[in-house]
From TrEMBL:
<dbReference type="InterPro" id="IPR036322">
    <property type="entry name" value="WD40_repeat_dom_sf"/>
</dbReference>
<protein>
    <submittedName>
        <fullName>WD repeat-containing protein CG11141</fullName>
    </submittedName>
</protein>
<dbReference type="GO" id="GO:0005737">
    <property type="term" value="C:cytoplasm"/>
</dbReference>
<dbReference type="GO" id="GO:0032527">
    <property type="term" value="P:protein exit from endoplasmic reticulum"/>
</dbReference>
<dbReference type="InterPro" id="IPR015943">
    <property type="entry name" value="WD40/YVTN_repeat-like_dom_sf"/>
</dbReference>
């Protein structure tokens, strides 16, 4: 691993090769009588699996323990996948958004523990379920966020529209509704206890669900002076206790720490640290 002060090279580079994964993915894919070059467009990971989005409407599901790979096909197979997000609940839930504004949800059953007797295992192995959320987004998906239990999915697009989809696993149904329109591209979302933290090119907002309605408040008193691709996340410390803090990136190498009501508590400055960085090699 190398830490460098070069802005073009980035701060941290990991030299561990991923050839064991890439060798399982074909360089080209056949579509009718034509073949198309396959490119990886996005990635997300949990401790057991890695999801890789492609430019041909496929999501590759890599098992990190067994070393095998599975193809998950979206309904719109010609549109590139622009965002993937995984959450591990009773099953693995994978949300994949594409350039046409369509969101596909894959419900992937978890394997049964080896110590469970065969008599308690289901006679028929459950299959991967697919849900398609279409006709709500009119531009490409730029961000996806899950609730912790995997029953709510939030999708944001390039036009600033955020859609919440509630999934009923037992009835195999999903219900979607628009909760806010920021009119600027959604950069990142983070969800914690009925509050959705949203960072767009223009500003960062908090969307809190109260009395079956969504209430929107801005994080901080001022919007950004210029449009920037800056994100924001919730971070909860179980050691300190208390509520989750919202961390919001700002221009000029600054970071805001705010509470769940959007009040800025502290500003962290990284400019001094950035200017004094030297190349560090870790063997």
């Amino acid at each position: 691993m190398e830490v460098t002060s070069g802005a073009e090279e980035g701060f941290i580079r990991e030299w561990t090769p991923c050839s064991h994964i890439l060798n399982l993915i074909p360089p080209r894919i056949q579509t009718g009588i034509f073949s198309t070059e396959l490119s990886l467009t996005c990635v997300d990971a949990v401790s057991e699996y890695i999801a890789l989005g492609t430019n041909v409407g496929l999501v590759y599901w890599y098992d990190r323990k067994k070393g095998n790979i599975q193809r998950l096909r979206c309904e719109a197979s010609t549109s590139p996948i622009t965002y993937v997000k995984i959450v591990s609940t009773v099953d693995y839930m994978v949300g994949a958004g594409n350039a046409a504004g369509q969101v596909t949800v894959f419900q992937i059953p978890k394997e049964h523990p080896e110590n469970i007797p065969d008599t308690l295992k289901p006679k028929v192995e459950p299959k991967v379920e697919r849900y398609t959320i279409g006709d709500l987004h009119k531009s490409k998906i730029t961000s996806i966020e899950w609730s912790k239990n995997g029953m709510r999915l939030f999708s944001g697009d390039k036009s600033g529209v955020i859609i919440m989809t509630e999934i009923d696993f037992y009835m195999h149904l999903c219900k979607s509704m628009e909760i806010v329109n920021e009119e600027y591209e959604i950069v990142q979302m983070s969800y914690h206890q009925n509050t959705l933290l949203v960072s767009s090119l223009y500003r960062t907002i908090l969307c809190e669900r109260r009395d079956a309605r969504w209430h929107v408040s801005q994080l901080g008193k001022k919007e950004r002076k210029s449009l920037c691709r800056l994100g924001a996340v919730f971070q909860h410390s179980y050691a300190r206790g208390g509520g989750a803090a919202a961390y919001c990136a700002r221009a000029g190498l600054r970071l805001w720490r705010a509470d769940a009501q959007g009040n800025v508590l502290h500003t962290l400055l990284f400019k001094v640290i950035y200017l004094t960085l030297f190349i560090i090699r870790i063997n």
